[in-house]
Amino acid sequence: MKKTATFAIMHFAIAFGVTYLLTGSLVLGGLVAIVEPAVNTVAFYFHEKAWGLVERKNAINAQDPSVLLA
């Protein structure tokens, strides 16, 4: 859990820092530091779902190689 927490802090800090350096705005930096990780979390959920489908398909193909010929 500590590793996850420190990664989240690092992620927020980088998002804030990059946005602040590009815009000079503390408000925009803070907004991006909150919104970007939230969007990334949702995207990661769907990314994991898609990879789950790929892994299941690969497992089925490994069990029955004739599926690849169809």
Provide tags for this entry.
70 residues, elongated, mainly alpha, transmembrane, 2 helices
Overview of the structural elements:
This is DUF2061 domain-containing protein. It comes from Pseudoalteromonas qingdaonensis. Keywords: Membrane, Transmembrane, Transmembrane helix. Pfam families: DUF2061. This protein is 86% helix and 0% strand. Helix 1 crosses helix 2. It is elongated and about 60 Å long. The protein has 70 residues and is mainly alpha-helical. The model has no long low-confidence stretch (mean pLDDT 87). The chain has one domain.
How do the strands and helices of this protein lay out in sequence?
Blueprint: H1 2-23, H2 26-63
Helix pairs in contact: 1-2
Domain DUF2061: 1-51
Organism: Pseudoalteromonas qingdaonensis
Transmembrane segments: 12-35
Choose one word for the global shape: elongated
Return residue spans where pLDDT drops below 50 for at least 5 consecutive residues. Answer: none
Number of helices: 2
Characterize the biggest β-sheet.
none
Protein structure class? mainly alpha
Strand content: under 5%
Our count of domains comes out at: 1
- Overall residue-averaged pLDDT value: 87
Q: What Rg do the Cα atoms give?
A: 20 Å
How many individual β-strands?
0
Quote the distance from N terminus to C terminus.
45 Å
How are helices and strands ordered from N to C?
A: HH
Relative helix content: over 70%
InterPro entries: DUF2061_membrane (IPR018638)
Keywords: Membrane, Transmembrane, Transmembrane helix
Pfam families: DUF2061
Protein name: DUF2061 domain-containing protein
